[in-house]
Write the structure tokens for this entry.
Amino acid sequence: MVFRCELKKVVDDTYDIEIGHGLQEKLVADLKAGLTGRRRFAVITDSTVEGLYAKDIFEMIKAAGFGAEMFVIPAGEKSKSRQMKEFLEDSMLEKGFRRDCAVIAVGGGVVTDLAGFVAGTFGRGVPFVNYATTLLAAADASVGGKTAVDTPLATNLIGMFNQPEKVYLDIDTWKTLPEEQIASGLAETIKHGCLGDRELFEYLEENVEKIFAGDVAACEYIAEHNCAVKYKVVMQDERESGLREVLNLGHTVGRAIETVSDYRLLHGEAVAIGTVAQARLGEKYGFVTEEERARVEALLERAKLPVRIPDYIDKAALVKKLYTDKKVRDGKLRFVFEKGIGEVVQFGENCFAKEIAENEIAEIIAQM
Amino acid sequence: MVFRCELKKVVDDTYDIEIGHGLQEKLVADLKAGLTGRRRFAVITDSTVEGLYAKDIFEMIKAAGFGAEMFVIPAGEKSKSRQMKEFLEDSMLEKGFRRDCAVIAVGGGVVTDLAGFVAGTFGRGVPFVNYATTLLAAADASVGGKTAVDTPLATNLIGMFNQPEKVYLDIDTWKTLPEEQIASGLAETIKHGCLGDRELFEYLEENVEKIFAGDVAACEYIAEHNCAVKYKVVMQDERESGLREVLNLGHTVGRAIETVSDYRLLHGEAVAIGTVAQARLGEKYGFVTEEERARVEALLERAKLPVRIPDYIDKAALVKKLYTDKKVRDGKLRFVFEKGIGEVVQFGENCFAKEIAENEIAEIIAQM
Ligand SMILES: NC(=O)c1ccc[n+]([C@@H]2O[C@H](COP(=O)([O-])OP(=O)(O)OC[C@H]3O[C@@H](n4cnc5c(N)ncnc54)[C@H](O)[C@@H]3O)[C@@H](O)[C@H]2O)c1
Ligand SMILES: NC(=O)c1ccc[n+]([C@@H]2O[C@H](COP(=O)([O-])OP(=O)(O)OC[C@H]3O[C@@H](n4cnc5c(N)ncnc54)[C@H](O)[C@@H]3O)[C@@H](O)[C@H]2O)c1
């Protein structure tokens, strides 16, 4: 006997991404207006952002008459772990949080990735909001609903798709970012230019130094263009079943090198090296010209990003680690490629990644 | 500036529940026909079910030409933990599993709850299939898409809604179940009778002994009626935003006592005690008559289930633990009640749980 359990439904995960300067009051006003439907909040942040921004937000939320607790993880990629997820869950349970709460993530990509995952499985899912305080989170991590933790064997492989109720990109918070964190965010920005926004790429060729100087107009320009590239792709393919893989440009080698460096390289630094590897491979296939490849490398360098593999990296281990990439299919490596600058190569219907033999990429890695 | 990320979509999680005898070959045939869209399988089971059924299924899957590995957790509720989830993830990663795999859960509710959760977050979600080998899993756990782990502070609070591709309820596997496991499954069956199927309840009043004797017709009858009650509720309210709470009948006290007993009580045994507590509270409110309440207790006893709180339970700790229930709202306990036998009490639009003062339930617990 067979029963059919009919579960066809319309799901609306639509949300707003607000870009601005000092959005703390806007956040509290939105919570008052019922953004999450909850009146009790777990503010999740890291040890650096706590004193800079999160404590203020936490106090403002309490002052607005809501229940709130703040939970602080140590700053750094190593906190994006299952252990830290457990710590947050246990702390929330101890403070009496149940399904009737919402999570407010205040921080960079580590905080938004982890807090979004915590929210997704706490009480089988509570709402969450991202308040992004790094350029990298604004450019990439906080938008799109991918949440995850790292494990010793692979980055970002344990996680879920979980869309926030709203994302705040507060450009003012970039002022306190160390230079290498700005650079790290620029790596994803340059990636966005390469894969989908030639104008953004050329704007950066003109103005990249202005970002480091904190120029307001330049920061707004890249915040908006980043967002536009990313959310357009996400809207078309939320679950990464095809098109969304284009956002993975540079990430096949990037993710692997990030792990093999044991996170001595920042995410964006690793992605920069991965972008160079991918452009070189693309040049071999004729997807980009030598001149275009050189422009990509030059722009990454001006953005104070590494374009060579550091000496301490074990290249054999790096090649092996490539196989932990989530694009791997039937044991084969797959890469995304830019076509010139501002577009990607399409390899078939809904297919944007190409199978690559190990020796082809190993050769490029050896030369870098 | 505000971008709106439009993510409205139609999701179809419809799946079949197949009830029968010896469905191993059907499973393999379905996998061949592309049920999961994958060709590599992680068979997850426990140390008891491994030798009884899972190893055979695993061998059949390999013999059909698929890639497969088997992962075995120790039998028992204590395995439904975050640590065991980690162990499975790491083992799967070590064996080279990535997003291009599917999970086959073979076992009782512990295995299906845990494996469904592992599948939901592995590579941000891979498909899974449940092959249920206990009456309790057939009656309840394997159907409906709730997956979870326990934590020291609460049962089932960390997890997600994740629908399988298909569920197999193999009645033949009940033959090897110890008597107390049959009883445990009957607790959920009686619960289903109480909340939504008077005919099922009365059938059990006539025939409950036949289930222990392995009578084929009686086992089929309850498998089908259980399934009908549960999937109808789930279809109307997958996410437990209202109606689905009715399935929580008896679980407020049940879950709490299960934790406080440190899992010395089986899930169904704990639910049986919880069902009595709820019926007694319901009698006080006039939702059931004294006679109906007595019929519920008598049927539970004939199903070899406990109807009193064991002496070793600390009743103060039990009352405190009630507050970890997921129905708690704004710090208030909430209970579901049956109305007579075969229906539930509705307390408002889409509201099936009633706020209860702590002393009311504490009094009942004291008397039990
Ligand atoms: N979910 C996605 O789609 C996605 C996309 C890209 C990257 N990521 C993830 O994002 C993470 C990297 O993001 P990140 O670079 O923001 O990491 P991060 O959160 O670790 O932030 C970087 C550092 O800057 C500090 N910091 C944060 N805001 C600050 C501020 N305003 N002023 C001063 N210091 C501040 C942090 O404490 C941290 O030490 C990685 O884990 C990566 O995997 C996710
Ligand atoms: N997801 C849901 O909606 C839902 C609903 C109800 C219960 N549950 C969960 O289900 C769990 C209880 O389910 P369960 O009772 O099946 O637990 P279980 O999986 O632990 O199985 C009970 C015992 O029987 C053994 N066993 C399994 N199949 C057997 C067979 N055919 N022959 C002999 N022995 C066999 C197991 O090894 C185990 O020792 C709890 O964790 C509970 O929270 C979940």
